Amino acid sequence: MSKLYQIKEEIFYDENLEGIYLLTPSGNTLILDDVVAKYIWSTISNKASHEHIVNELMGAFNLDQSMLDEVKKDVTEFLSELEIHDVIGIYDDVEAKQFH
Known about the structure:
Blueprint: E1 3-7, E2 12-16, E3 19-23, E4 29-32, H1 35-43, E5 48-49, H2 50-60, H3 68-84, E6 88-92, H4 94-98
Helix pairs in contact: 2-3
């Protein structure tokens, strides 16, 4: 079953020229200061699958298919880091399950 990722509603964050500053539930501050991290963050403001995020990055940054495995790995690592800090929710993609 496919999973969907989304920023938790209760997470406070602020975006400025220096990056995106996140306040985690444990009171830590995370700073997303590179263009790829900020792009992923904006993509998961609505529920998005891992595949959707990867496809968005591949298109937005005009990446060659030879980069696909590396992009998948990087997205997985980034989402895992956000999950560790409890700033994203992970949901079952019920609609995807209905079509299988």
